[in-house]
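Record 1 of the preview.
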Amino acid sequence: VLQLIKEKLPVSISLGLWMTLLSYAISIPLGIRKAVKDGSRFDTWTSAVVIVGYAIPGFLFAILLIVLFAGGSFWQIFPLRGLTSDNFSQLSFFGKIADYLWHIALPVTAMALGAFATSTLLTKNSFLDEIRKQYVLTARMKGLSERGVLYGHVFRNAMLIVIAGFPGAFVGALFAGSLLIETIFSLDGLGLLSFEAIVNRDYPVVFANLYIFSLIGLVVHLLTDLTYTWVDPRIDFETRET
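->
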């Protein structure tokens, strides 16, 4: 069972990691921009786009991408199966990177569509709460630029709640997103393995997958706690006398 999971784990980790990084790379700058432009036309139409993207199920968007870009009915731009081509071992170093990115483009895009919506609105609301506090007004009165106030003072306080959502986003991508996406794009990962094990009542594989997912979740939570102290040095986990 461990050997079987070892073969499938890189696929699921790859999808979950890239999906989380892509969604945060989009949601954090967009959320900050929406907070700064709160109530403007930019804020209104981006909110509409985010809500529509969140409302579309990931698997339905995946099917749409296949129809449009994977030879379904229109263009044959991206491959439909696997994470690498058959001649992957013969490619150069940069050729392997390009081939890998070419294969994961559609699955990661389908998974990230709804993932960045929650993070975007969370980032916006968190920054709005901080921008309205007294220390921001004090920093502005001292003559700091808007960018200096935003990234020098507001950023580390507002990002704490966003960082707190990272474990859920990453583990959620492994649990829920990977199953449907791996099935649609024929990716041989843990999601597909778990589904087949449940259908076939292969209990050793089911419990081993549950253990791996739980272990990954605990490790990511630990990294999140360590990130808290890096973002805001005022936070520590020392015991206090009462």
